[in-house]
Amino acid sequence: MTKERDMSAAENCVCFNLRRVARVVTQFYDSEMRRHEIRPTQGTILASLNAKESWNMAELSDWLGVERTTLVRNLRPLQRDGLVQASGGGRGHRVELAITAKGRKQVEKLAPAWRSAQTAVVKTLGEKRWSAILSDLESAALALNK
Q1: Spatial separation of the C-alpha atoms in residues 53 and 107, rounded to whole Å
Q2: pLDDT tens per residue, the chain (146 residues)?
Q3: Angle, CA of 72, 32 and 113, to the nearest 5°
Q4: Fold observed for domain 28-144
Q5: What are the strands of the beta sheet with 55-56, ordered from one edge?
Q6: Nearest Cα residue to 136 out of 16, 14, 8, 43
Q7: Cα gap 93→127, rounded to integer Å
């Protein structure tokens, strides 16, 4: 005889639900972007580097909300493929990051796949609802990050 477990704590847990939904959405974006051999996390890095003239590792890590070790792990294939360049570093020195010309071309190639995924998700949620969710998430992040 199996014993049923009370799942209400997990079912109502903000962290669990946000992470679960994030995994599903990431898998959806991944399916759209896979043909370009870039994962959504890497696409976000490329788009961020493409949008701003200069970033250092600490700034980009903070902007993306990821630990530096996670950022380094996601940067490695982008550097290996010649899409991102890192310079500087060493003891006490900042690592400067820049997107290469090849990286900019990759962003252009990725844009339609990203737009397709973005349009589908926003359509599913509804534009007003998505705007409200985004605003609420930003407010919560600011409040919790104090």
Answers
A1: 15
A2: 566 677 777 788 988 999 999 999 999 999 988 888 888 889 999 999 999 988 999 999 999 989 999 999 999 999 999 999 999 876 667 899 999 999 999 999 999 999 999 999 999 999 999 999 999 999 998 899 87
A3: 90
A4: Arc Repressor Mutant, subunit A (1.10.10)
A5: 55-56, 95-99, 84-88
A6: 14
A7: 43
Taking phi over 0 as left and psi of -120 to 50 as alpha, with beta for the rest, 46 belongs to: alpha
Q: Which residue has the tokens 């477990």?
A: 5
Whether 103 contacts 42, CB under 8 Å? no
pTM: 0.81
Task: Judge whether 45 and 97 are in contact, CB under 8 Å.
Answer: no
Helix locations, the chain, DSSP H: 8-12, 14-33, 40-51, 57-64, 68-80, 101-125, 127-144
Domain limits of the chain? 28-144
